[in-house]
């Protein structure tokens, strides 16, 4: 028992009155970021002066981190897994939802219709060691690890303790994913809010109370939720590219845990106790809307935040009362399709066109091939024509990347090349063909009686080739 207040302490020297910045939570956040373990200290903060001064550090830190501020805690850990109300929902059938990892960090992604590209979260890609990154594809029969050729992060992507902006990135694989893996088209509608959605991803399973469940390997999971609102309705509390974000909370059927209902003062219990939520491991996974029997990729899982009075605990960890946020795919559809070659804007030329003898009629699989579009003379007026690829014995997303767009020729311009990327595999399938079709000309016309023009290319089979042996530079002349 202590018998005197000064027992064990030196009392002859005065304590210092400085501020010790090393104790500040902001400094701890910065250090943690280097180890990809971002923490948030904005709520329920406990400060302790370690006996090295008069308490000035304690007072300043406490004053700058009040406990009664609006609860807008954001958890944007790159090692973001998904679970349903039981914590054990399997994701069978979602074979185009993939796992991305470098041996230290694990995230999720979604295979696009090109068959060669993965759409995922920018903050995950920025944290990965890309030379050592693999993409794990599981078609429920067999699994395969694929290498990454290149990565492209959305130009204005950013995430910090204040918010998240434009959290999208694209990985280009060295070879197309197995044909057994699903490819997903982009949702381009503008009516996501209020729709039921399926959340998908890999990672740590856990109970609705936030307790992690034992699992030997990361497992693909899927669960349902309802998109409550677009983020711009929450700009009084959160920052970021909110109008390009889809927000949904983890309801359990009770008003006290209706996080967005409380925030917006508009009660909405969603799907009640059957809802799913994101947890660490799900960043980059897909949020899907189903229409007319088809699954459409509407969002990419980004981060978790919380509303203090609705949350069952004190962490933004995917427990009941937390809020999930996905980047809104419809806002970026143009960028995604341009980057993956699914749409392109060919460069028109006013010079002499290439000789028709130079036009390639066949291509080795894995290489790019071009089609020549030309007028007999320079355009007399602004002229346009639509183009799109069509399957024949070759299939889009398996043997070539489907592409479409509009070719525009200004007055005086005469010709352009339209490129198509073919994809190699090591299957013995023989030579295959596909076509490019031109339709709906304006300012110029097709030969009399024709409503479209088509040209065919042959992909030469080579079982010794796998992947992309020559990557197309879209829009080159």
CATH level 1 class label of the largest domain: Mainly Beta
Residue-averaged pLDDT: 83
What is the CATH H-level superfamily of the largest domain?
Trypsin-like serine proteases
CATH architecture of the largest domain: Beta Barrel
Which structural class best describes the helix and strand composition? mainly beta
Strand tally is 27
Radius of gyration equals: 27 Å
* Largest beta-sheet details: 9 strands, mixed
Strand content: 25-35%
CATH topology of the largest domain: Thrombin, subunit H
**Residue windows where pLDDT falls under 50 for at least 5 positions:** 1-11, 33-45, 66-91
- Sum up the overall morphology in one term: elongated
Estimate the helix proportion, in percent. under 10%
- Give the count of helical stretches: 5
| Count of discrete structural domains | 3
Question: What's the end-to-end separation, in Å?
Answer: 86 Å
Written description of the protein model:
This protein is mainly β. The protein folds into 3 domains: 21-64, no CATH class; 74-338, Thrombin, subunit H; 344-460, CalX-beta domain (Immunoglobulin-like), CATH 2.60.40.2030. The chain has helices spanning 25-34, 56-64, 122-127, 259-264, 333-339; strands spanning 74-75, 82-83, 97-101, 106-111, 117-120, 134-138, 143-153, 158-160, 163-165, 169-173, 185-186, 196-203, 219-226, 229-230, 239-240, 245-249, 277-278, 286-291, 294-306, 322-328, 362-364, 368-374, 383-391, 404-409, 415-421, 432-442, 452-460. The strands form 6 sheets. Strands 1, 11, 12, 13, 14, 16, 18, 19 and 20 form a 9-stranded mixed beta sheet that branches. A 6-stranded antiparallel β-barrel has the order 3-4-5-10-7-6. A 5-stranded mixed beta sheet has the order 21-27-26-23-24, with no helix packed on it. The chain starts with 24 loop residues before the first helix and ends in a 17-residue tail after the last strand. Mean pLDDT is 83; it is low at 1-11, 33-45 and 66-91.
């Amino acid at each position: 028992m202590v018998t005197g207040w000064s027992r064990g302490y030196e009392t002859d020297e005065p304590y210092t009155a400085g501020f010790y910045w090393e104790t500040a939570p902001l400094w701890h956040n910065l250090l943690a970021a280097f180890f990809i373990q971002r923490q948030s200290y904005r709520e329920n903060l406990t400060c302790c002066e370690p006996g090295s001064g008069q308490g000035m550090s304690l007072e300043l830190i406490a004053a700058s981190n009040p406990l009664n501020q609006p609860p807008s805690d954001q958890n944007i850990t790159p090692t973001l897994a998904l679970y349903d109300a039981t914590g054990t929902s399997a994701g069978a059938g979602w074979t185009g939802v993939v796992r991305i990892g470098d041996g230290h960090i694990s995230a999720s992604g979604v295979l696009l219709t090109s068959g060669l590209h993965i759409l995922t979260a920018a903050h995950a890609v920025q944290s990965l060691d890309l030379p050592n990154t693999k993409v794990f594809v599981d078609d429920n029969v067999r699994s395969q690890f694929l290498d990454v050729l290149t990565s492209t992060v959305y130009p204005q992507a950013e995430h910090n303790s204040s918010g998240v902006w434009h959290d999208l990135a694209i990985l280009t694989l060295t070879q197309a994913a197995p044909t057994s893996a699903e490819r997903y088209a982009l949702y381009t509608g503008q009516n996501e809010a209020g729709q039921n959605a399926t959340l998908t991803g890999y990672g740590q399973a856990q109970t609705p109370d936030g307790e992690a469940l034992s699992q030997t390997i990361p497992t693909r999971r899927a669960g349902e939720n309802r998109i409550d609102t677009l983020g711009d309705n929450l700009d009084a509390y959160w920052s970021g590219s909110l109008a390009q974000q889809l927000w949904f909370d983890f309801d359990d059927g009770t008003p006290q845990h209706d996080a967005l209902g409380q925030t917006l003062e508009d009660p909405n219990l969603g799907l009640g106790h059957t809802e799913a939520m994101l947890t660490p491991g799900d960043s980059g996974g897909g949020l899907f809307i189903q229409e007319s029997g088809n699954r459409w990729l509407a969002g990419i899982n980004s981060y978790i935040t919380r509303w203090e009075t609705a949350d069952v605990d004190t962490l933004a960890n995917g427990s009941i009362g937390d809020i999930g946020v996905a980047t809104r795919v419809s806002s970026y559809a143009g960028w995604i399709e341009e980057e993956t070659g699914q749409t392109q804007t060919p460069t028109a030329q006013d010079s002499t066109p290439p000789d028709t003898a130079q036009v390639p009629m066949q291509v080795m699989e894995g290489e790019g091939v071009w089609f020549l579009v030309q007028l007999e003379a320079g355009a007399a007026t602004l002229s346009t024509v639509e183009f799109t690829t069509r399957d024949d014995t070759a299939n889009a997303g398996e043997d070539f990347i489907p592409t479409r767009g509009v070719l525009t020729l200004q007055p005086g311009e005469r010709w352009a090349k339209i490129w198509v990327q073919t994809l190699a595999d090591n299957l013995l399938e023989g030579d295959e063909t596909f076509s490019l079709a031109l339709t709906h000309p304006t300012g110029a016309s097709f030969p009399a009686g024709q409503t479209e023009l088509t040209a065919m290319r042959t992909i030469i089979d080579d079982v010794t080739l796998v992947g992309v042996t020559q990557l197309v530079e879209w829009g080159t002349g």
